[in-house]
Amino acid sequence: MTSRIAFLGCGSMGEAILAGMLAGPVDPATVVATVRRIERAEELAQRHGITAIANSEEEQANSLAVAGAEVVVLGVKPAQIAPLCREISAALEPEAVVVSVAGAVTIEQIERALPAGQAVVRTMPNTPLMVGRGVVGLSTGSSVNAEQSARAHQVFAGSGVVLDVPEEQMPVIGAISGSGPAYAFYLAEAMARAARELGVDEETAKTLATETVAGAGLMLGQQGADATALRKAVTSPNGTTERAIAVFDERDLPAIVLAGAQAAAKRSDDITAELDQA
């Protein structure tokens, strides 16, 4: 990818995407980012060798950034997406693909704030992108052609796995992979709490839980790994692990996880509706 790429808003997630992209065949000189504060702009420029502009210093920063860009990544909060799209509409190249990483904002909502026929891609990345092990759900609008879709994929390819999904599945993607890292962290918290309740000191309990969850994640990330097979390999018949799993099954842990995912997906739909009313 050698064309000009604009990142409008570049927080921790945006920077993780940026860093992964720059690890590939992308010239930092082709990348421009806009942020609110001059200190953040200087930090990004120094760390990654890109051009970074602070909105606090240049009122037209976003419009300047998208001029001539073939890929425009929207990295602001959901409520700011539509106003930002209206702000940059006149400066966008007709062939530019606009890529949103904002949860719950639909392609239609973005398209309404852009010129007719503008290519729009909606994505749902997750935080493991920050360590190069993310997963990104990606949906394309009706105006996106094959070349534009490929450009959008290339933005994320260096940070994790990119999966093409129907847009109607985005709330579920968000509930599983978007929110999913928090579920794993919650499990680590619960494991540490259990260790403390069983008499282990706090520091040891934290280390036991953290390293166990992190190590299990690495095993699951190996090529060809299967969660069910890995679980069964640890679960000896009539052993200690089997007794623990039996309690989890008795309490119907899968149903609890499903209920949580359903609640997350519903909240995504609610936010989408709220944005339409704003």
From TrEMBL:
Pathway as given in its UniProt record: Amino-acid biosynthesis; L-proline biosynthesis; L-proline from L-glutamate 5-semialdehyde: step 1/1
Catalytic activity as recorded in UniProt: L-proline + NADP(+) = (S)-1-pyrroline-5-carboxylate + NADPH + 2 H(+); L-proline + NAD(+) = (S)-1-pyrroline-5-carboxylate + NADH + 2 H(+)
Alphabetical GO biological process terms: L-proline biosynthetic process
Domain of life: Bacteria
UniProt keyword list: Amino-acid biosynthesis, Cytoplasm, NADP, Oxidoreductase, Proline biosynthesis
Keyword flag Zinc: no
The keyword Cytoplasm appears for this protein: yes
Domain Pyrroline-5-carboxylate reductase catalytic N-terminal: 4-102
Any one of the GO CC terms: cytoplasm
Enzyme class: oxidoreductase
Binding site for NADP(+): 8-13
PROSITE patterns from the UniProt entry: P5CR (PS00521)
Domain (Pyrroline-5-carboxylate reductase dimerisation) ranges: 167-269
Subcellular location, record wording: Cytoplasm
Molecular function via GO: pyrroline-5-carboxylate reductase activity
Signal peptide interval: none
EC numbers for this chain: 1.5.1.2
PANTHER family, per database record: PYRROLINE-5-CARBOXYLATE REDUCTASE, PYRROLINE-5-CARBOXYLATE REDUCTASE 3
Stated family: Belongs to the pyrroline-5-carboxylate reductase family.
Described purpose of this protein according to its UniProt entry: Catalyzes the reduction of 1-pyrroline-5-carboxylate (PCA) to L-proline.
Name of the featured protein: Pyrroline-5-carboxylate reductase
Organism in which the protein naturally occurs: Psychromicrobium lacuslunae
Lineage of producing organism: Bacteria, Bacillati, Actinomycetota, Actinomycetes, Micrococcales
